[in-house]
Amino acid sequence: MHQPLKLWRNARLATCDAAGRHIERGALLTRGERIDWVGEEVAVPAANADEVHDLGGAWVTPALIDCHTHLVFAGTRAEEYAQRLRGTSYEQIARAGGGILSTVRAVRAASEQQLFDESAPRLAALIAEGVTTLEIKSGYGLTLADEAKMLRVARALGRAFPVTVRTTLLAAHTVPPEYRGRSQEYVELIAREWLPALLAEGLVDALDVFCERIGFSVAEAETLFAAARALDVPVKMHAEQLSNLGGTLLAARYGALSCDHLEYAGSAEAAALAGGGPVAVLLPVAFYCLAEKHPPPVAALRAAGAAMAVASDCNPGSAPGTSLLTAMSMATRLFGLTAEEALLGVTRHAARALGLGASHGVLAPGYAADFIVWNVRSVEELGYWIGFNPRRTVVRAAEVMRWPSPTS
Ligand code: NIG
Ligand code: FE
Fold first, then answer.
1. Mean pLDDT calculated for residue range 30-37
2. I want to staple 107 with a disulfide (CB 3.0 to 4.6 A). Which of 88, 140, 269, 283 is the partner?
3. Which residue range forms the structural domain that includes residue 277?
């Protein structure tokens, strides 16, 4: 089959490669759905391109990757937000049977079609800002049938919209009412029955655990991680969000793709995330909405050489937001990331947090031809605007996207 060769010329490229190269007078060649060549326009290899696109000197980055979302859910928790504004804490609401469990009730009551219809506009909003790859977690069903329903909706969204969806089984989000006081039994059910069954249905790309006082213990997380390892399923963890339980150290021992939140992580955790360890996924929108006071240890993570990603955490409780660009702004202002770190956090490092580090998030030969043409004067503008969308063109699999409507 002919793989069309396309030349994308007259561009300023922020490659997000290991050297962090910016190419001021750059060009890209794509063949089929992949990048074939990246470099200075004067050095483009002589080739008969099937198409030539003049990008008018605009900045181009890899397309954005939102590596941590709970985007599929029903209802809202606006009334809980109002309660929190009056001083009740997230943890108090959860202990009183609200929080995650209130969304569980809404998701269980929703049909697959309703879940799809409620989630689609949130996905459209992320896509409009230049997201072409995202993770979607389950975790509001907490029965086999309802977790499967959520994951099927996530897959359906991936077919209906121009995005790559990676699904994560987060059945260990909170203990469902049916298993109150029997969390170990619930964890064993997930490990022995649900994970293998949902994996066999093609619904699971990774497994996640909310390791927290109001979630699951480190020992329970280990039961799940061991089961995932036996089935070759990559793992991730909501770690040290509200307290330091030590989940990060366990996740690092299991070679997790990422540890997410990390507000209460310390130097031991930062060391465990060093170098090629799990990606530290920072979720500043949750930090902001929960009015947390304790930011993640960014200086220690940086000193350890940990890869830091930034994600929206889109969910009805702690982070009701669908703007990855706003998350970048918050990561810089609230957590102290540099503009460059924020950009790497939604490209190169976000790809790694999804196990896609060899194929996504970088402008380099062999990588997916997913990139964004921006209406900005400098790439620093990407984590600077709040509520303004400077996206010009989204190119996915070397095709210019029409939008923001679904592809089918
Ligand atoms: O990432 N911490 C647990 N999970 C979500 C919140 C889920 C919810 O409150 O519905 C988070 O913050
Ligand atoms: Fe989360």
1. 98
2. 140
3. 64-353
